[in-house]
Amino acid sequence: MLITALPLVYLVLRTVELGSSEIQELIFSARSVSLLWNTALLVISVAVTAMIIGFLQAWLIIRTDIRLKRIFTFFAILPFALPSYVAALTWLTNFPGIRGFLPAWIILSLLTSPYVYLAVSAALVSQSSKQEEISRTLGLNAFETLIYVTWPNVRGAVLAGGLISALYTLSDFGAVSLVKYDTFTRAIYIAYRSSFDRNVAAALSLMLVLFAVLIYLTYKTFAQGETQSSTSQFASITKLGKFRHPAALLLSGLGFVGFILPVLSLLRWQFVGQSSADSGQVVRAAINTFGYAVSGGILIAIFSFVVAILTARFKSRFSLALERILWITHALPGLVVALALVYLSNRYAQITYQTSFIVIVAYLILFLPNSFAVLKNPLEKSSKALEEVAQSMGYAYRAVIFQLLLPLIRKPLFITASLATLTIVKELPATLLLRPTGIETLATRLWNAAGGKEFAEASVYALIIILLAGIPTVILTLLQLPRSSTTIASREVNKEFIG
Amino acid sequence: MGIANDSGSSSRVDLYRVRFTLPNLERITVKKLLTASLALVLGLGTLAGCASESSTNTNESITIYSGRSETLVAPLFEKFTDETGIGVEVRYGDSADLAAQILEEGDNRQADVFFSQDAGALGALANENVLVELPSEITSLVPDIYRSEVGKWVGVSGRARVFNYNPEKVTSVPSSVLDLMDPAWKGRIGIAPTNASFQAFVTALRILQGEDVARDFLVAMKDNAVLYESNDVILDAVETGQIDAGLINHYYWYAKAKEVGNDNMSSKISWFESGDVGNLVNVAGVGALNTSESTLTFIKWLLSEESQRFFADTTFEYPLVNGIIQAADLPTLESIEKPDINLTNLSSLKVTLELLSEVGLL
C-alpha cells in the first residue's frame, strides 16, 4: 500500500536534482505567484460552487417531495461520465473563443458537484431523520430544520465532497488547458513536455502537493466536531409547496448544462465532421478500456476497504500517515503520477515498464483516495459497539471484518468500485504514458484524434466513453434510490418494531 | 443538544442485529466473492493486453515512437510491413512528449525508431546521446541542411513557415516577419504560441537575431496577435475573415485548398523577403536508437521514392530525397529563400519556452 507514496519519492528526488538556488528562484518568481493566485481562486470558487450545487441536489432529491426523483438523480450524477477535456471541448465548440477563469469555473463546478451529491445523499440516506421530525414537531419550519438540524449532520459529507472537488480542480489538466486558464497543472505540463526539463516540472508539482496539504488542513479545521448519527432508516419528507416548480426547474437546468448539452454537441459532430472512426479500432479500444476499468475498479475497492478499516479502526501513526499520503497523492495530476512511474519503473523495475500491470498500479495510486473517502465516512459512522459485541461473542477480528463490516458497507463498497471504474474509463495521462505500445484505449484514441483535429472521430470515442462510464452510473443511481423511498423505510420500521 | 445523542437506542438496535444477522451470513459467499473478483481482475488484465494494434505476427518487428499522427502514417507503415515482412508496433503521441519519454526511459529502451514532427525534438535527443549514428548511405540521400551534421537523424519531409493573409485586407505583404511588431497589426495577426512549429520559429529567431530581438518580437506579439491553439485554426480564422493574417506551415493551406478547391480559398500564402527568419524550413524526421537491420531497413524505406511520394501527395510536404518530385502546385523547396540556420540548433527549445512564458504567451 506504500506504493501510493512512490510519486512523492520521485518528486523529491527530482526537485533535489534542481539545486537550492534554482528552486528559490522558481518559487519566488512572478510566474509562481500568479500561478498560485490563479490556482487558489479557481480551487476555492469551484469547491464552494460544487458544494452548493451538490448539497441542494441531494437535499431536494432525498428530503423533499419533488417529483421525477429518478430523473433528477440521473442528472445529478451523469456529469461523472464526462472527462474534463471532453466537457471543455464541447463548451468550446458551443461558445467559440471562451477562455480564462469563467469557463474553467463553470465547467469544473458542474463536473465535480456529483462528488458532493454522492457524499451528501449517502449521508442523508443513512442518517436518522428522527431529529428532523422532532424539530418539525417542535415548531421549526422546513428551512430552519434544514439549517439547524439537517445541515450539521451532513456538514461532514458536504465538506468531504468539497475536499474532493477542490483536489480534483487542483489536479485537473484537461479543462484548464483547453480554456487556457493558467494553473499549476498547465505549467507543469508545459514544463515537462516541451522543455525536456522534468526537474522544473517536479518542483512545480511539489508546490502543488504543498497546496494540497494546505487544502487538506483547511478541511480538517472545518470538519472538526462532526456530529455522530444513528443508523436507523426513517425518511422525513419536506413539502416544497410553491417552490416545487422552481426547484424542478433548477435541477433540470443543472442536468441540461451539466450533461445533456455536452452530449448534444458531441452528437452534432457526427453530422458536421469529416473524419470517422475505424470500427475495428473502436472495438479493440473498448475491450482494453473495459479490461483496465473493471480490473482496476475491483482492485481499488479491495484496497480501499483495507485502508478504510486500518484508518477507521486501527488508529496508529502508520495508518494516520497512510491516510495523509493518500490525500496528498490525490492532488497529484495524473501526468505527474505517470511520470513518476515511468521514472521509477525504468530505474528500479524495468520489466514492469509499459505493461498492463504498471497501468493498474497507476490507477491504484490515482484513485484509491477517492474510493477510500467514500468508504471511510460510513465506516466511521457505524457503531464500534457492534464489533466489540461480536468479538466478545468469540468471533475473530477477521470474521468480524468479513461477516460484519463487509456486509455493513456493502453498498458504499459497490459505489466505490463503480466510481473507480468510471474514473478509470476517463483517465488519460497515465494510460497514455504507461500502456504497452500497441494497446489503445478509448481515452488514448480520443486524445490522438483530438490532437489531430479529427473531432468527428474524437467525438465517437467521447460518446462511447460516456456510454461505458454511464452504464455503471445508472447502476450506481438505481442502488441509491430505494433506500430513500418511504415504502422501504416503513418496512424497516415494521421490522424493528415487530422484531 | 439532547436530541443529538440517541446512541443508546441505536446500540440496542445494533445488538438485535448482531444476534440475528451474524449466523445467517455465509462466510463462504464472501470468500467466493473475493476469489471471483481476483480471477476477474486477472482475466480482464490479460484481456486488456490482447486487443493489440500490432500489425502482424511476423518474427521480426520494430517499435516506432511516432510524433506523426496515426491517421496520416498508419497506412504508410502497413505498406512497409507488406513489402518487407517486418512488423511494426507504434506508439503515437506528441513529438515533444515522446522525446521526453525516450529520455526518461534511459537504458531501458523500448523504441527502435523515433519519428518526430520537428527537428528540435530530434536535436534534443541527439544532444543527450540517445540516438545512434546512421550509416552514410542513408544520410547521404538527403541534402545536408536537412539532416544532423553528425548523422544522428535524417529529415524525411520538409515544411515551410509561411505568411497566410487575406488579400482584401492585406495589400502588400510585409518584407519581414519582424514588421508584424508594428502597432498597425494590432488585433489582425494570428499566432499559435503553444504549437511546436511556431516555437521552432521563435528558436530560430533567437539564434539568428539574438535573445533581445526575440523578446521584443514576442512582447509586440502579445499586444498585436490573436492567440490560437494550432495552425489550422489560424487558417480557418483568416479564411473566414476573423483576422487578416496568420503565421502557419505551408501544407495547411494546400491541404485546405485540395479539400475545398483552389478557387474557393479566400486567403493566400506568401513568403517574406529573402533569408527572413519567417521563412524557416523545418523537417519531420527520424532518428534510430539502435542499428539493427530492421531499424535501418525502415529508415531507408522512409526515404524510398514510394514513401517520399506519399508525403508529397498526401500531406503536401516537401519530399527531401534528391530527385523526387514534389506536389505540383508548390514552389520548389530550393526556390524558398530560407534563413541560414542549422536545424540541429532548434533543440534549444527550453530557452524558447522560458522566453515565451516570461513574456506571457504560454
Q: How would you sum up this structure, described in words?
A:
Chain A is mainly alpha-helical. Helices cover 79% and strands 0% of the residues of chain A. Chain A is globular and about 65 Å long. Chain B has helices at residues 7-21, 27-48, 70-84, 95-105, 119-127, 136-139, 196-209, 211-224, 231-239, 250-260, 293-302, 305-314, 349-359, and strands spanning 61-66, 87-92, 113-116, 153-165, 189-191, 225-227, 245-249, 268-270, 281-288, 318-319. In chain B, strands 1, 2, 3, 4, 5, 6, 7, 8, 9 and 10 form a 10-stranded mixed β-sheet that branches. Chain B is 43% helix and 15% strand. The longest helix of chain B has 22 residues, at 27-48. Chain B has 362 residues and is α/β, with parallel strands linked by helices. Classes of the chains: A mainly alpha (499), B alpha/beta (362). Chains A and B meet through helix 7, helix 10, helix 13, helix 15 and helix 16 of A and helix 1, helix 2, helix 3, strand 2 and helix 4 of B.
What would you say about this model in short?
Chain A is an all-alpha fold and 499 residues long. Chain A has helices at residues 6-18, 20-27, 30-63, 69-77, 84-94, 101-126, 130-137, 142-171, 174-178, 184-195, 198-223, 244-272, 279-313, 317-330, 334-348, 356-381, 384-392, 397-408, 410-426, 429-434, 442-451, 455-480, 486-498. In chain B, helix 4 packs parallel to helix 5 (119-127) and helix 7 (196-209) packs across helix 13.
